[in-house]
């Protein structure tokens, strides 16, 4: 399976992608919170940030097939405005809460500690592709044993596992985590894998407008999907190419 990485501003390069050609968009853009990505992309004031967000969403949505869908990472600060905007173009399927499992550090005293990111899951139409069986979570032996009531006996889903809920509890990648690359907002691959496996058919095309450290590319290659990705920072592009080279050489060793 292959990937194409464009070292380019997504808005400058988006016309390289044909309309109605993409199965899934996974977008993890700057959140508008002032992170340093080696550029000014996360330094905009709220109104400029929302205007820019609308512009790239407007550019990305036509690239999706009728069966396509889009996941967008954001925060509670801007999710109301961003989700309202996307709802004028797409159907909202889920709001997913990513609980980063951050220990409470006690710094905040005027509100509750915020430990989650908000993920919007949207579909282009009711015909959107969704393979639940690819992402079911197996029941453990104990749970299976306790499900002895007749309504559970012989039920296929008891063997196949359950539907993941809309709160995803996955620890963020701390500095010493083995997955960790040199990128400030790298997402755990487990999260992206769930999106790829459930919302893009095998050999289908995933578009990532903001590749960062290349987590979407890694998830796509592992699960035999094609990936088209944009990243504006050339150092992150180098990091991605090294990451994927290591992944490929690891795969050869495993073989
Ligand atoms: C939140 S990070 C993505 C992290 C990624 N999901 C990962 O797991 O590593 C956002 C990335 O978008 C890049 N970026 C910002 N503006 C961009 C633009 N207009 N076009 C392409 N990339 C951009 C930033 O340099 C940054 O690396």
Description:
- The protein is an alpha/beta fold.
- It has a single domain (3-136, 167-254), classed as Rossmann fold (3-Layer(aba) Sandwich), CATH 3.40.50.150.
- The protein has helices at residues 10-13, 46-60, 79-86, 141-146, 156-160, 189-199, 215-222, 234-254; strands at 3-6, 22-27, 64-74, 91-99, 116-123, 167-169, 205-208, 226-230.
- Strands 1-8-7-2-3-5-4-6 form an eight-stranded mixed beta sheet, sandwiched between helices.
- Helix 2 (46-60) links the parallel strand 2 and strand 3 (64-74).
- Helix 2 packs parallel to helix 3 (79-86) and helix 6 (189-199) packs across helix 7.
- The radius of gyration is 19 Å and the shape is globular.
- Bound molecules: S-adenosylmethionine.
Give the helix/strand layout.
Blueprint: E1 3-6, H1 10-13, E2 22-27, H2 46-60, E3 64-74, H3 79-86, E4 91-99, E5 116-123, H4 141-146, H5 156-160, E6 167-169, H6 189-199, E7 205-208, H7 215-222, E8 226-230, H8 234-254
Parallel strand pairs: 1-8, 2-3, 2-7, 4-6, 7-8
Antiparallel strand pairs: 3-5, 4-5
Helix pairs in contact: 2-3, 6-7
């Amino acid at each position: 399976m292959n990937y194409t990485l464009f070292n380019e501003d997504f808005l400058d390069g988006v016309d390289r992608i044909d309309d109605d050609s993409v199965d899934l968009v996974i977008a993890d853009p700057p959140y508008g919170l002032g992170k340093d990505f080696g550029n000014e992309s996360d330094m905009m004031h709220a109104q400029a940030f929302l205007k820019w967000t609308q512009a790239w969403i407007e550019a990305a949505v036509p690239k999706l097939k009728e069966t396509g869908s889009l996941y967008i990472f954001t925060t509670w600060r801007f999710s109301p405005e961003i989700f309202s905007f996307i709802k004028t173009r797409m159907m909202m399927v889920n709001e997913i809460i990513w609980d980063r499992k951050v220990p409470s550090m006690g710094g905040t005293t005027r509100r509750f500690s915020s430990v989650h990111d908000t993920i919007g899951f949207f579909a282009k139409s009711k015909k959107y592709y969704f393979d639940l069986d690819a992402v079911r979570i197996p029941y453990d032996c104990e749970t299976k044993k306790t499900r002895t009531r007749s309504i559970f006996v012989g039920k296929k889903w008891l063997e196949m596992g359950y539907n993941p809920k809309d709160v995803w509890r996955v620890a963020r990648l701390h500095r010493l985590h083995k997955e960790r690359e040199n990128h400030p907002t790298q997402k755990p691959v487990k999260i992206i894998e769930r999106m790829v496996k459930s919302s893009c058919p095998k050999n289908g095309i995933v578009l990532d407008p903001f590749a960062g450290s290349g987590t979407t590319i890694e998830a796509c290659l592992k699960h035999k999907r094609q990936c088209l990705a944009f990243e504006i920072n050339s150092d992150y592009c180098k990091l991605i190419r090294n990451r994927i080279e290591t992944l490929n050489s690891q795969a050869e060793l495993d073989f």
